[in-house]
Amino acid sequence: MDWINTVKWDAQGLVPVIAQEASSKDVLMFAWMNREALQKTAELGRAVYFSRSRGKLWFKGEESGHVQRVHAIRMDCDNDVLLLSVTQEGHTPSIACHTGRHSCFFQLYHDGAWQAAEPVLKDPASIYN
Q: Tell me, what DSSP letter sits at residue 36?
């Protein structure tokens, strides 16, 4: 497990993670991982994050069905940020955001205000019970 010790974990034992769609290169979301989440992601080939609000592992798609299959795990030059190359599964077109959008980065700054630049693909109320 020397590879996991190369990661520079923050004071809470976490590392920031960016999920990028393999086919389109769209940035889908940002999340956190602890050591266990990174180990499980590597073992399963499925994105597993650490939910800071819930204080536990979060298997992406465990409630929504919007699973992320991991093709590659990259680390930046400072060893303190990870990049996942993923295929977003569970809906066509793909949904990564809990708001029912393709990407969590749907808000665009324009003329002094934030505007939704991507449509809701599926009502969040129908995704989460």
A: H
Angstrom distance (rounded) from CA 113 to CA 60 = 31
Which residues touch 34 (CB under 8 Å, ≥6 apart)? 9, 13, 14, 15, 50, 57
Alpha helices by DSSP H, 2-79? 2-5, 35-44
Domains and CATH numbers, the chain: 2-91 (3.10.20.810)
Pairing of strands 82-88, 15-21: parallel
pTM: 0.92
Listed in sequence order, the DSSP H helices in the chain are: 2-5, 35-44, 124-127
Among 6-15, 87-96, 104-113, whose mean pLDDT is lowest? 87-96
pLDDT in tens, 22-58: 999 999 999 999 999 999 999 999 999 999 999 999 9
Q: Supply 62's token pair.
A: 């465990």
SS3 48: strand
pLDDT in tens, 92-124: 889 999 999 999 999 999 999 999 999 999 999
Q: Which DSSP letter does residue 46 get?
A: B
